[in-house]
Amino acid sequence: MDEFESIEDLAKIIKNDFDSDSNKKKITLLYAFNSVGKTRLSTAFSDLTENKVLCYNAFFEDMFSWDNEDYILTLEPNSWIVDLINEQGLENNIIDNFSKIINAKIQPDFNLRQGKVTFKIAKGDDNSQSNIKISKGEESAFIWSIFYTILETVVEALNTEKDGRTTQVFNDYEYVIIDDPVSSIDDTKLISMVIDLIQMIDISQNKNLKFLITTHHALFYNVFFNTFKQKRDYKSKFHVLTKNDTVLKLSEQRSDSPFGYHFVVKNELQKAIETNAIEKYHFNLFRSLLEKTANFLGYNEWYDCILADNKHKFARLINHYSHGKLSELEYKDLSNEDKDLFKEVFNDFIEEFKWKVEKQNANQ
User: Which of 125, 273, 338, 346 is least surrounded, with the fewest CB atoms within 10 Å of its CB?
Assistant: First the structure.
């Protein structure tokens, strides 16, 4: 395990590894919990690359703003994004990529001169609806679709001889950074996004284009890990990043031990309980731990691993908080009652979980 005093030091190590001699394509996958510094890592890495990078992170998302009164998604009309969409005629590609993710009849209407996008439901008859409000998940999927379409353009350009490219904008690009494109998106849509992204990385033929993918989402990480660990034509690195006070700790994952990642999850949940810092996303982490445990021990459902008396009440609560269906305007803090219930069920689970793992291993 390597230790770092700053995100900037970690970014330098990752970049140096990317820039080392190799005839293989390169991808680095990094898992870290919220607040560890994934977004800062993406910006620190970008600062080292002299603008040779295409980056998706919170700052890319912040270039878009949702007008909740007029149901309009706005972006700066003079931005490089608008210029590229206009220059390359990318509107239809964005619509196609958006439709593949949401699997619905919602369609965007572009007014790029004003930097505005509205949405409609196209039914092909008089029941069509214009200028509709979309969910936070649909907004996130649309913004990702814009980035993904730009990524397609970058890959296509760099796969082509320089003189034959439709744009020269990306000639010097060497890195793609993708930080958590999963906000408010359910797992079904997430899998679709991951599969398309993996295919896009595979399509890239230019070995000078390196990919840094960071996430806090277990499913996102595991799909990438299980795909690229099998690919011999890649130089792939898989890491888990944690933070202890001010010290960053980077551990490399070399195998897919069923509990390696989930020990990290368990420690994160215990830390949240000890510091009374339980948030709604911790319910999603706990559910992930329950699902892996159920699968390992042969239970039919994840909630069968909850043996406390208040099992059904907590199962409803964890479903409620872990699926991200809450209104953006809803009060964000958990009640003391919900926190106490989380602590009680988690502590009961940990005690029973340890006993069952030891018993299972003893019988093998």
Answer: 125
